[in-house]
């Protein structure tokens, strides 16, 4: 079996966790390849709502192996808390049995959080992501595989804390790092994770040679990509297809399917332009019916109409073989549904995203309009999805207006839908035939 890549196609929170959990039933491995605990992925199993920030969403499938890959930045305390929660609810400690951390993955330390807490420009999650990637690029970062070499090394601890304190002073932070504290942190991290630090790229390569199915679980979304997103209002990693295999330590030839996840509308958390953002009744509907609050920070998500300009950009960068549409149910009850097909920028119509943040902020959406479809309760949507899949009817069970809406999105993006989400529950997804 080859590898399947699952990516957010918008500004994150498209429903990656839900899809990965679903597809992981038939996978042997789920791998996070970039980002850190800025991610918040939700899996809903009946009454139980699971939120993962670092653990791959395939953890819900006991036969699935889990990798925190080379391209990640990992806060060991957040991971520990998440593992404690998992152990309490499942009785399982997956470390070294089915959870492995790449020796190449970088560590988020308190210093990185202190630095990130000074952000006022981007609206980051404050989890230390950018400062940790900055250290990686500056070639002064600490990787899981380096831990055994620095444990008990006084010279390393004092040089590192000196460097960190100089940077904190320069940045105007009142926080300080102390060499002894750093040493004891490093000793604790090493002891806690020693059993699961591994050459995970090699493990995955071997698994793929044995025809095992590997899912590469993206975090964030294409528009938050450091190179291809709405810079500077982006995260600090490459969130796109090009980094999925690279950040996992395998080659791109392994990938067959690249699934782009997109909401039936669009949301964004943090600063930066979002041309279709709504500040009206429809926007209020999307935010309240869709419960649009950040999984990681609880911040209110900004809501807007589906933006085909964004999606075409995401398609060009990622080469999606299929789209997984989510949250179609949230549109139920709206009389009219709009789709942005182009922008007007300084009096000119454009169909591609400008790379400049200020130009994007001046873009006005040009809409096409579609008729809405009736509101239904979540149990009704769930029952419809279960029936559609059992009876092999696909999206033919949906109201005609909803089917037409999906067809229009497929045409505008140029990629077929492979599934349609109609509720948060694992089973509230209709497979397209
Ligand atoms: P992720 O970061 O891409 O994994 O997405 P999040 O978990 O941060 O946010 C997606 C939210 O939408 C979560 O609360 C999911 O439970 C919920 N969700 C996912 N798919 C659907 C869907 O099809 N319909 C509805 N109503 N909710 C969904
Ligand atoms: P998932 O995986 C939505 C946003 C932040 C901020 C910007 C930079 O759940 O889709 P960072 O902390 O990464 O330096 O913040 O990126 N952001 C996300 N928005 N979903 C996410 O992850 C995000 N991860 C980061 O809000 O605007
Ligand atoms: Mg999220």
* Stretches with pLDDT under 50, minimum 5 residues: none
Helix content: 25-40%
Radius of gyration: 22 Å
> How many strands, which pairing sense, and closed or not: the largest β-sheet?
10 strands, mixed
The CATH topology of the largest domain comes to Adenylosuccinate Synthetase, Chain A, domain 1
Number of strands: 20
The coarse overall form would be globular
The CATH superfamily of the largest domain is identified as Adenylosuccinate Synthetase, subunit A, domain 1
What number of structural domains do the residues give?
2
Strand order, sheet with most strands? 9-7-5-2-10-1-11-15-19-20
Mean pLDDT, as a whole number? 97
Helical run tally = 14
**Ligands bound to this protein structure:** guanosine-5'-diphosphate, 6-O-phosphoryl inosine monophosphate, magnesium ion
């Amino acid at each position: 079996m080859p590898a399947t890549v699952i990516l957010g196609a918008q500004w994150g929170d498209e429903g990656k966790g839900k899809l990965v959990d679903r597809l992981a039933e038939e996978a042997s491995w789920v791998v996070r390849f970039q980002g850190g605990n800025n991610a918040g992925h939700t899996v809903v199993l009946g009454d139980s709502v699971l939120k993962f920030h670092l653990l791959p969403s395939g953890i819900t499938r006991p036969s699935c192996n889990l990798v925190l890959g080379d391209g990640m930045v990992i806060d060991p305390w957040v991971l520990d808390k998440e593992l404690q929660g998992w152990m309490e609810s499942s009785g399982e400690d997956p470390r070294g049995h089915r959870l492995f951390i790449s020796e190449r993955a970088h560590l988020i330390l308190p210093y990185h959080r202190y630095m990130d807490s000074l952000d006022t420009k981007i609206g980051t999650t404050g989890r230390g992501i950018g400062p940790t990637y900055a250290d990686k690029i500056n070639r002064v970062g600490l990787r899981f595989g380096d831990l055994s070499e620095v444990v008990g090394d006084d010279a390393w601890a004092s040089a590192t804390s000196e460097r960190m304190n100089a940077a904190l002073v320069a940045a105007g932070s009142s926080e300080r790092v102390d060499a002894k504290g750093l040493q004891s942190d490093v000793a604790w991290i090493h002891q806690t994770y020693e059993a699961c630090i591994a050459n995970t790229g090699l493990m995955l390569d071997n698994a793929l040679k044995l025809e095992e199915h590997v899912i590469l679980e993206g975090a964030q979304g294409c528009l938050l990509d450091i190179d291809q997103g709405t810079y500077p209002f982006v995260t600090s990693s490459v969130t796109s297809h090009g980094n999925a295999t690279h950040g996992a330590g395998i080659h791109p030839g392994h990938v067959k399917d690249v699934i782009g996840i997109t909401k039936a509308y669009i949301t964004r958390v943090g600063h930066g332009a979002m041309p279709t953002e709504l500040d009206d009744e429809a926007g209020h509907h999307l935010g309240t019916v869709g419960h649009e609050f950040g999984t990681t920070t609880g911040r209110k998500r900004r809501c807007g109409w589906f933006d085909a300009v964004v999606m075409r950009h995401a398609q060009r960068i990622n080469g999606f073989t299929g789209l997984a549409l989510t949250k179609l149910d949230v549109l139920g009850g709206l009389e009219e549904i709009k789709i942005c097909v182009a922008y007007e920028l300084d009096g000119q119509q454009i169909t591609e995203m400008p790379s400049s943040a200020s130009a994007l902020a001046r873009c006005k959406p040009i809409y096409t309009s579609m008729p809405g479809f009736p509101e239904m309760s979540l149990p009704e949507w769930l029952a419809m999805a279960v029936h559609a899949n059992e009876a092999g009817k696909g999206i033919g069970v949906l109201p005609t207006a909803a089917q037409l809406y999906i067809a229009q999105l497929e045409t505008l993006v140029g990629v077929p839908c492979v599934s349609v989400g109609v509720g948060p529950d694992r089973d509230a997804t209709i497979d397209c035939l």
